[in-house]
Amino acid sequence: MSVNRIQIRVNPGEKNITVPLGQIFDEVGREQLITDYEQVELEDAVNVIQDYETTRYYYGNDTGDYNIFYQFRFFDEVNQNWGANAVNFNNADFTDAELYRNKKSFTNSFWKFDYYDSPEREKQKLMFTIILPTTNCGKYPVNIDKDEDPVAYYQLASQALPTQYDVWLPEVQLGPYTGKDESYYIHWLKNRDLFEIETFYMSCKFFNAKTGKSNRFVNANPSGNVGPMEPSNWFYYQVNISVNELTTPKYSYKVRVFDNNAYLLGFPFNPVFLGEKGMTSIQPITWYEYII
Prior knowledge:
Blueprint: H1 30-45, E1 54-59, E2 68-73, H2 96-100, H3 104-107, E3 110-116, E4 126-133, E5 137-143, H4 150-157, E6 164-174, E7 186-189, E8 199-208, E9 213-218, H5 231-234, E10 237-243, E11 251-256, H6 260-266, E12 276-277, E13 285-289
Parallel strand pairs: 1-11, 2-13
Antiparallel strand pairs: 1-7, 2-6, 3-4, 3-8, 5-6, 8-9, 8-10, 9-13, 10-11, 11-12
C-alpha cells in the first residue's frame, strides 16, 4: 500500500529481522505538561474559586430614615390617560372585592425590576433582578359597591357601621425595618474587582396573575407621545451605588432620573447624574404602564 512507508530488508542467512520504528522518547518537560493539562481540565470542570460574597446597600435619601417610595400608574381607559385616577389596581382588572379579600390572582402578581449594566439594548447584560410583591403596597378606604360585594355591604350596614373597606393601592413605601424591608435592599458583590461597575439601569415589568400577562412600564408620562418609544430613553431609571467610610450607612444607593442624551454626552468616563427620585411620597419613583 502507498501508505506503508516501512521497508524491511532481509539478507540471506540472518535470523533476526530489524523493524525500523523509532524507540527514542524525550521525557524532558512531560511531567510539567501533564500538570498543566490537569490544571486546565480541573478549571473547566470546577469553576475557579471567586469571592461572590455580597453586601447589602441601603437607599441613601439623605433624610435620615432611608425610606424609598414607588408609585405605579396603570393606564386609565375611562379617561384615556395616566392621571391621578391611574393610581388604582382597578385599571389592572382587579375589583375592590378581590383586593380586599387578598385573592391569589392579586397576591401572586408582582413587579420585576431588572438591573442592567447599560441602557443600550444591543450591548447590555442583566446583572441582577429584584421582585416587588403587590402586598408591599399601601391601602386606602373605599366605599363598598353593594352590587359588586353585597355580603360585605349588608354585614356592615346591618351593624350601622361605615360601608367601607381597605383595598390595596399601587403605591409603595419601603425602609430598613421589619415588615417593610422586602425588596428594599440592593445586594451587590463585596469584591468590586469582579465587576468594576457602580451604575445600573433599572427597568420595570408588571406580571398580572389574573390575566396571565406582563406589561412593561416606562419612566415618564407617555401622554402626547407619538409613535414607538425609544427604549433607551423611556424604559430605565439610573441607579448608583457607593461606598463611603465616613457615612452611615457605609453602603448606599440612589435612584436618579435617566436621560439618554445626557448619558451619551457623559459616556463612558464622565457619567451625568440627574435629579434623585424616591426620596418622599411627593417625589416617588413613578412608573407608567406602557400601552403599545
